[in-house]
Structure formats: C-alpha cells, structure tokens
Amino acid sequence: MSIFDVFDRISQDSTEKRGKIEYVIAGLGNIGMEYDGTRHNAGFFTVDRLAENYGVNINRLQFRGKTADVTINGVRCLILKPSTYMNNSGESVVQALDFYKLDIGKLIVIYDDISLEPGKLRIRRKGSHGGHNGIRSIIELTGSEDFQRIKIGVGKKPHPDYDLAKWVLGKFRKDDLQKLSNSADNAVECVKLMVQGRTDEAMNRFNS
After folding, report:
1. 74: Cβ–Cβ under 8 A, 6 or more apart, which residues?
2. Taking Cα atoms as reference points, which of 169, 168, 167, 172 lies closest to residue 182?
3. Which phi and psi (to 5°) does residue 182 adopt?
4. Which of 87, 163, 179, 181 could form an SS bridge with 118, CB 3.0 to 4.6 Å?
5. Per residue in 8-30, pLDDT tens?
6. Residue 36, number of CB atoms within 10 A of its CB
C-alpha cells in the first residue's frame, strides 16, 4: 500500500466517522472585490462569520461556488457561497443538493432583505421569492419554495423612486456596519438551532 493509499484511507475513515453532509447552508451574494461590503452581499458576510466561528475557510471550489465542510452541534453541514452571481444562485445550490442527495428541507439560505432595517432578522420555513432574484433562481431550479431561509435586514431605499439595483449594490453606511455584524452573530445562533430541527425556537428568539 502506497503512502497515498494510506492518506486516502485515513481521509475516508475520518469522513465516515463524521457522517454524511446533512445540510447545505447557502449565503447569497456576488463575487468580486467591487461587491465587497454591498447590501446584496449580506449573505456572504453572514456565512463568512459562521465559518469564522468554527475556524474554517470557505475556499474549496466545487458546485460552482466556494465551500467549507463544518460540523455544527453534531450536524455535518456544507457552507456554500455560489460563484454564479446572485441571479443564478440556484445553479450552484442545486448541484450541491443533488450531489449529497438532500431534500429541499435540508437547505438553509441566508440573504439580504430590503424590507428589514439593518440589524433585524427574519427566519422563515418557506415562502415566495418576494422579488429577490437569488431566491427566484433557487425556486425555479429546485421547483420548490419549501426551503428555510434567514433574511438579513439591509434597509429600504431612501425614497420609492430610488433605483433598486443601485441601492442593493451600494455599500453599507458606516453606522449600519455594526448592525450588520450584530445580525450576522444572531444568524449564526439561528443556524445552530435550525440544523438541530429547532427552527421554531430560532424564530421565537430572533424574528424581528
């Protein structure tokens, strides 16, 4: 047996002991430095915070995105940041779900919501896309609205006539960044509960 066979065996045994991936946790956003710090990247920001909490980096390239393998409260999960840009998020999410043969109920999506003020969260078990193109893509390609989601408040447009794309692709105001950080911390706590089947508890504690 070669040294490579030994490493493969160790890796396989470790994976088997940890169990299979049970949840996909997808944070939505746009890739590229020009999108860092924008409202539309609140999902990316939040899953980065989740990864930091568990000492992992979201840097493995697979499923048309970047991923990290992490065990949360005894539940093995895949953190996913689609690299397809927001409007095609479903292409990445579907690949991950299909690969691990996971039901749509084992998907948690984290994304920005302009109807919530910065610092606010809303957890839902299912629902329509509500005009959010990333969620629209996931619903169209999975054929289902029955996936859990955590909405991160980014604030409403300054006035009704303000261009929506310009708003969500704009940077957070300095005074809103701390609120976003607080939201991310609360969302991490939500994820810990949701992967254990305690979504009602997460909703009761954190829904705004």
Report:
1. 196
2. 172
3. -65, -40
4. 179
5. 444 444 444 468 999 999 999 99
6. 13
In one-letter notation, the amino acid at residue 70 is V
Residues forming a β-bridge with 189: none
Residue 126 pLDDT: 96
C-alpha count within 13 angstroms, C-beta hemisphere, residue 133: 12
Q: Please give the positions annotated as active site.
A: 40
> Where do runs of H (alpha helix) occur along the chain?
3-18, 42-53, 89-100, 133-142, 164-168, 174-194, 199-206
Candidates 3.40.50.970, 1.20.1260.10, 3.40.190.10, 3.40.50.1470; CATH matching 18-206: 3.40.50.1470
For residue 123, the surrounding DSSP H or E stretch is: strand 121-124
d(CA 89, CA 58): 16
Residue identified by tokens 């969500």 is: 168
Mean pLDDT throughout 48-58? 96
What does residue 168 show for φ and ψ, rounded to 5 degrees? -70, -25
Question: Cα(133)–Cα(139) distance, rounded to whole angstroms?
Answer: 10
